Amino acid sequence: MAIEHGAGEATPGREDAALVPISALQHHVFCPRQCALVYLERQWRDNRLTVEGTDLHERVDETGRQHETRGDVRIARRLDLACRRLGLIGRADVVEFHRLEQGSRERGIALDGQPGRWQPFPVEYKRGRPKSHQADRVQLCAQALCLEEMLATGVPRGALYYAQPRRRTDVAFDAELIACTEQTAAAVHILLDSGRTPPATKRAKCRRCSLLTICLPQPRQRRSARAYLRSALERLQDPSTP
Q1: Are 81 and 89 spatial neighbours (Cβ–Cβ below 8 Å)?
Q2: How many CB atoms lie within 10 A of CB 2?
Q3: What pLDDT is attached to residue 43?
Q4: pTM of the entire structure?
Q5: Residues of the chain with confidence (pLDDT) below 70
Q6: CATH for 16-199?
Q7: Which residues lie below 8 Å from residue 53, measured CB to CB, with a gap of 6+?
Q8: What is d(CA 128, CA 34) in angstroms, rounded to the nearest whole number?
Q9: In angstroms, rounded to a whole number, what is the distance separating the alpha carbons of residues 3 and 118?
Q10: How open is the CA angle 145-143-105, to the nearest 5 degrees?
Q11: How far apart are CA 109 and CA 121, in angstroms?
């Protein structure tokens, strides 16, 4: 599926080497320290939640079809994204292109070999249920801002598909969410450019983090002096004692 890109001057922004993954914004909203551990210190450890998330994304890709048409919806999977204005790079799970009705106020874009104009609509797949925080919405909004820059058209809406209820949550990219996403992107660049990992602060949400034992390792229990001396004597009497 060929997409007609918008014409005009290149968008000013960061060079390719300075682009950060869109997923870093999601990590930063959840916890700036987690973001630094993953993208500065290259630390990662899976737990049940992250494995379920990876499995869901792999099942989205298992269709074997990168492009598909269903009536007035053209579906693109694994679409590479970039936004130099915000210094972001990534890949969308799914971007749907909805055919616009004649007379629509939306501008849309042209698709090669397809009549009419089409409205981009990003869809991000998530395990579990909708969250109380903004991490997923910010990640989806960042994808929309990438599409807007790449295609020179507005992307006013998208959706988050949650596996547990097996339904979509529609997301409108209003001024508040866009501002939050732009501020988060700036904060991620400041964090990663600083090269410093924020100090650990234990909170209730830490229990759900796969990096818990890396971020907040449990202190080793101290043995009493009596136990230490008894162990030392046992090793002297029997060298095979561990």
Answers
A1: yes
A2: 9
A3: 86
A4: 0.78
A5: 1-12, 17, 45-65, 217-225, 227-229, 231-242
A6: 3.90.320.10
A7: 126, 127
A8: 20
A9: 10
A10: 55
A11: 12
